[in-house]
Hints:
Blueprint: E1 2-10, H1 16-31, E2 40-46, E3 57-63, H2 66-74, H3 76-86, E4 90-99
Antiparallel strand pairs: 1-3, 1-4, 2-3
Amino acid sequence: xxxxxxxxxxxxxxxxxxxxxxxxxxxxxxxxxxxxxxxxxxxxxxxxxxxxxxxxxxxxxxxxxxxxxxxxxxxxxxxxxxxxxxxxxxxxxxxxxxxx
Length: 100
């Protein structure tokens, strides 16, 4: 199994209301990929954080293997979510991939 963890910071110019909507849209879009991408075992987006956090949301996903993760990265449904809602609204992305 391979874990794929992403932390994002949303753009500063977004209002609190816009940030809430963006978080909900990212969560719905990414979690909506469950069952659609070969090798994707689990996918969860955490949108609630404590004030001590310096990230706004987190993707926690599990893949069967590294090849499945690579396939996910270019899968059209994932690319649509990434290009449609994630990239336009985030200013920073940190990724950690590892074998579980």
